Amino acid sequence: MADVVIYSSNYCPFCMRAKQLLASKGVQFREICVDGQPAVRAEMTRLTGGRTSVPQIWIGNTHVGGCDDLVAAQRSGQLDALLAG
């Protein structure tokens, strides 16, 4: 299974939804919280090509995007293929 990284905030409902979706699939992920961490948020923004919102999700080397992107990947059947690596 591919490594999953999610940049998130403790107070973000979209982050919670994305983490719940991943957990419902039995996916373990590494969470990087940007709360009060301007350098971490800046690194996330750089890695995403300018996106500043959370969550930002990577599966392996693929930047999936945010929660809506993750849900869309699930609905289209692409999420399982990404997770399989």
Automatic annotation (TrEMBL):
<dbReference type="Pfam" id="PF00462">
    <property type="entry name" value="Glutaredoxin"/>
</dbReference>
<dbReference type="InterPro" id="IPR002109">
    <property type="entry name" value="Glutaredoxin"/>
</dbReference>
<dbReference type="GO" id="GO:0045454">
    <property type="term" value="P:cell redox homeostasis"/>
</dbReference>
<feature type="domain" description="Glutaredoxin">
    <location>
        <begin position="4"/>
        <end position="64"/>
    </location>
</feature>
<dbReference type="InterPro" id="IPR011767">
    <property type="entry name" value="GLR_AS"/>
</dbReference>
<dbReference type="InterPro" id="IPR011900">
    <property type="entry name" value="GRX_bact"/>
</dbReference>
<dbReference type="GO" id="GO:0034599">
    <property type="term" value="P:cellular response to oxidative stress"/>
</dbReference>
<keyword id="KW-0963">Cytoplasm</keyword>
<dbReference type="GO" id="GO:0015038">
    <property type="term" value="F:glutathione disulfide oxidoreductase activity"/>
</dbReference>
<dbReference type="InterPro" id="IPR014025">
    <property type="entry name" value="Glutaredoxin_subgr"/>
</dbReference>
<comment type="similarity">
    <text>Belongs to the glutaredoxin family.</text>
</comment>
<protein>
    <recommendedName>
        <fullName>Glutaredoxin</fullName>
    </recommendedName>
</protein>
<keyword id="KW-0676">Redox-active center</keyword>
<comment type="function">
    <text>Has a glutathione-disulfide oxidoreductase activity in the presence of NADPH and glutathione reductase. Reduces low molecular weight disulfides and proteins.</text>
</comment>
<dbReference type="InterPro" id="IPR036249">
    <property type="entry name" value="Thioredoxin-like_sf"/>
</dbReference>
<dbReference type="GO" id="GO:0005737">
    <property type="term" value="C:cytoplasm"/>
</dbReference>
<keyword id="KW-1015">Disulfide bond</keyword>
<keyword id="KW-0813">Transport</keyword>
<keyword id="KW-0249">Electron transport</keyword>
